[in-house]
Amino acid sequence: MRGWWRAVPIAGLLAVASAGSAVAQDWFETFKDTATPAELHRFLYAMPKGGDLHLHLGGSVFSEWYFDLAVAQAANGYRYYTKVKIENCADAARPPRRPPYLFRFHTVDQNTLERFNACERSEYVPLESLTGSQKAAWLDSLRLDQAHEGRNEFFEAHWSRLGDMTRNPHLIAEALYRNMQAFGAEGVAYIEPQVGVRGLRASNGDALSPDAVMDIYRERIARPDAQATGVSVRMQVSLLRFVADAEAQLAQLYDIAARHQEIVAVNMVGREDNDKGYPLRFLDTLRALRRQHSGVRLSIHAGEVDEPNHHVRDTLLLGAERIGHGINLITDPQTLTAMRHGPYLVEINLISNLLLEYVDDYAQHPFPEYLRIGVPVALSTDDRGMWDSTLTDEFFVAVTEFDLTWAEIERLSRNSLRHSFLEAAEKAALLDDYSRRVANFVAAFQADGMAAFADRRPPRRGFVCRRYGLCPEPNEGNP
Ligand SMILES: [Zn+2]
């Protein structure tokens, strides 16, 4: 008899501690059946998460952050100007040039502006002097939020408009800190952003070496405010795969990664529907680099393309341990079956894939198939500054569209830590910490329900507002 009544509270504890068992999942199924979309979103915001393994730092800056950070760079001697009108300046319109001459809201620094002729200079105004409507249009020009905007607008326009803002290491270092803050606030413990280290400039226009740029990033991450976010950071460096000298760039990046312990991997990005960027182009180069260097890991975009091909298989042959996107892996049965149960992970970017039109609807997305046949997957944000979204929103899409179980949610977060390029001891510590945080979270929810998270206010950004009707409350800004 004593044994029986003592078993009751112990069973209750077990249900919390072993979240993932059938008993522990019941509460989440009940919650999903009864929660409003706003409650689910708030729950997912408060929920502890693992890491974000696939994000491009330059694309992870909300446009209002870019504006504020760029204006604040006056303190470091950088001043920004943006194009607000087209005067049909004859010389400027002569091709070739990037971005195209007719772009409004292309932003440059004072060094670039000085190289323009008087006509073209007259088209630009200091960023801080934009009128209210001009500023709204500038902010909008960096978001992929219109029905007619898709892949071409993203690849050809948004990145070009950023102009010289992405060439200022101090601005990018502050953007990294803002990301640590925002990710920390939504329960993320680790990020592995792809950062630019080449082509950056001092305020006088002088080129900065990758080592000098890394010193600036390293110093920013080490400051107490950044450390207080609780978010661990490692970095990747990446190259555009289709450019003429991509092999030489790959060798340069490999060397940089080998010399900086904060840089844990090299990535290759850019449109795969450009036939100059196919994976096997780099096989000989990587084999040569592996004869010289040890310890440089590879996570490579592959299968982010409409047509069937063997890009994922070929990218594994390159030595990649993680695949970015992997959308068309579903069309390659041999590679798909070989990837079940590891060791490679596919980094899934649900919002990116929809907005860049790799799927027209989530019913076409292979994510649930990968997840449920045992291909390791994790959710990530890619370029959330341009989607105007968060990692919480990625989980919200996944739960809403694919009815994730609690065990699947935990698996996604654990995968994002297990497949990180962290050193073993820190990885183990973050996995332990995740288990502790998630157990506390489940216990708090089971004790108090949504009241446990009453003070949590998730940002409701553009993507979830447009697609799911989760828009900011009146008088509620986004942090
Ligand atoms: Zn990407």
Description:
There is one protein chain. Mean pLDDT is 92; it is low at 1-20. The protein has 22 helices and 13 strands. It has helices spanning 2-17, 22-34, 37-46, 63-72, 110-115, 118-121, 132-140, 151-162, 169-185, 210-222, 224-227, 246-259, 283-292, 311-317, 333-338, 350-355, 367-373, 384-387, 391-402, 406-418, 424-448, 462-468; strands at 51-52, 80-83, 107-109, 124-126, 190-191, 194-195, 232-233, 235-240, 263-269, 297-302, 322-325, 345-348, 377-379. The chain has two domains: 51-59 and 162-440, TIM Barrel (Alpha-Beta Barrel), CATH 3.20.20; 63-142, no CATH class. The chain has 479 residues and is of the alpha/beta class. The longest helix is centred in the C-terminal third of the chain and has 25 residues, at 424-448. Zinc ion binds at residues 54, 56, 269, 301, 324, 382.
Helix content: 40-55%
CATH-scheme architecture of the largest domain: Alpha-Beta Barrel
The CATH topology of the largest domain comes to: TIM Barrel
What is the number of strand segments?
13
Put simply, the count of helices is 22
Superfamily at the CATH H level of the largest domain?
A: Metal-dependent hydrolases
